[in-house]
Write a structure and sequence with these properties.
Helices cover 14% and strands 46% of the residues. It has four helices and eleven strands. The protein is globular, with a radius of gyration of 21 Å.
């Protein structure tokens, strides 16, 4: 599901000079289409981007074309500080998926194949947008392969598109009433996956996700479970220490 980088062209409006005679008013056309209504997914995305901190525990597993399972924690702080720490198995091999950013430097990857570099300003935005729109599995797979999370250069919203979002009352999850949201995930304007996300009806925070990812070689099924989701709670300062 890796996306290709695309070039964006900015169109510059050209203003024609007016003559001495007043121009006829343009013919009235149909009113512009109203913007798409905001959804609970938009609200969640904005909430997590603006939060001082957020943290949760996650379990994820894939089956079909690729079998894997991971569990661990995600913690975010202000100023681009972020930590993902998961352990599990990818393709039958034990792996870690680790990432920490202190806002200036970031380090992560897998055992034997780490990376360390300057942290771009889009770390929080990239992780949040990717999490809300497609889930964590893609970034966990990248970290387990020794690569950085995707779209942390500020491009996430351009590459990942929610298409046809719809919702209905969901099943109870761990005793909590939920709202189920479904949509098609498009990556670079191409259909990539079918998504379903259950939000706690009281808090609006995610509790579980189910995804079918489409590959030419066959589909991959993804399940993600989120627990102990806290927004703007206390986080120890050393959580985001970048250590070799």
């Amino acid at each position: 599901m890796s996306a290709r980088r695309i070039a964006l062209l900015a169109a510059l409006p050209v203003l024609a000079a007016c003559g001495s005679s007043p121009a006829a008013p343009p013919a009235a056309g149909p009113p512009p289409a109203p913007p798409a209504p905001a959804t609970a997914l938009d609200a969640l995305e904005h909430r997590l981007e603006a939060a001082h901190t957020f943290q949760f525990r996650v379990r994820l597993a894939t089956s079909g074309r690729i079998a894997s399972h991971f569990e661990g924690t995600v913690v975010a702080g202000e100023g681009g500080r972020m930590r993902l720490a998961l352990q599990g198995s990818f393709g039958g091999r034990d792996e870690d998926a680790l990432f920490v950013s202190d806002g200036a430097r970031m380090r992560g990857g897998r055992r034997g194949q780490p990376f360390e570099m300057d942290a771009p300003p889009g770390v929080r935005e990239g992780v949040v947008v990717a999490f809300v729109r497609m889930g964590l599995t893609h970034d966990v797979a990248r970290l387990a392969a020794g690569r950085t999370p995707d779209y942390i250069d500020g491009s996430a919203a351009r590459h990942l598109e929610v298409v046809g979002a719809a919702h209905l009352a969901g099943e109870a999850v761990r005793g909590a009433a939920t709202e189920e949201w479904t949509w098609g995930l498009f990556v670079d304007h191409r259909s990539a996956a079918d998504e379903a996300l259950w939000l706690d009806a009281g808090t609006g925070l995610p509790v579980k996700r189910r995804v079918t990812v489409h590959f030419p070689e066959g589909d991959m099924d993804v399940g993600e479970e989120y627990e102990d989701f806290v927004v703007d709670g206390p986080v120890p300062e050393d959580t985001f220490r970048v250590q070799p």
